[in-house]
Protein: Pentatricopeptide repeat-containing protein
Amino acid sequence: MRLLRTLSFVLRTSSRHSCTSSTVSLNQKINGYIRNGNLNEARKLFDQNSNLRNVISWNSMINGYIKIRQIQQAQNLFDEMPQRDVVSWNTMLSGFRDTQKPQKAHRHFLEMMRKGPRPQELTFAVLISAFLNTEFDVLIRQLHCLVICSGLNLNVFLGSALMRGYIAFGDCEDFCRVFDEILEKDVAPWNVLILGYMEFGFINKAQRAFDVMPEKNAYSWTNGISKLQQDHPAVCSMLSKIYGENGVWGRVNELKKLMRKGHARKQKAGSWIESRHAFI
Structure:
């Protein structure tokens, strides 16, 4: 019986992702048009080859619309899909996150739970990011419980998203616990750890975390925060940059007001201006 179920699953999966040479060629052309910003040609090719396209073709087109913020077009295609996989659901979810539509992200996730595939770590990471700094962020703790009940592991994406959630809650204990539970840490959760310690006011802990992190990239605090003291004026500029990279715009505005009032002077150009995507 188990063998029959396994064979049935393989057949269903292979039918969704049927990849004849013609289908592979079609998908390559569609993705090529999308990469070059020619979504109209991609859609024309997609529509003209209904007998060749598979779920990858649909996902590519949906992702193309999301990239140019045509979320309704993406939704229309998603609704028309004959079959969807977890990538389809995650792609639409990322679209709602990127266009700042947390309510739609919430409804989409509930629909996925009812009739879609089993959510993955990336599903929860995207959903948590969509909820941050919105009225839906109160659900992040429940999502964490659901992650645990689902038996999912904390990878760097999900772990970092949860850490940012606990920063928003001001919960340093759970923030640190999530960091400890991430199985394999790259620079991303370490960067969020430093950000969190600074948010909680633990500048010395942030300094120590920077000193012991096993890997530093070009964006990891260009000269090292070990050179900064808690009352150093550069901290305001540094925090402003980090908060901006993380979309914590409320804190950015607070720091700008502080700088305008003269309580802190803006750091001179050179340290952070060139950095991008330093923190997840």
Residues 1-16, 222-232, 264-280 have pLDDT under 50 and may be disordered. The radius of gyration is 22 Å.
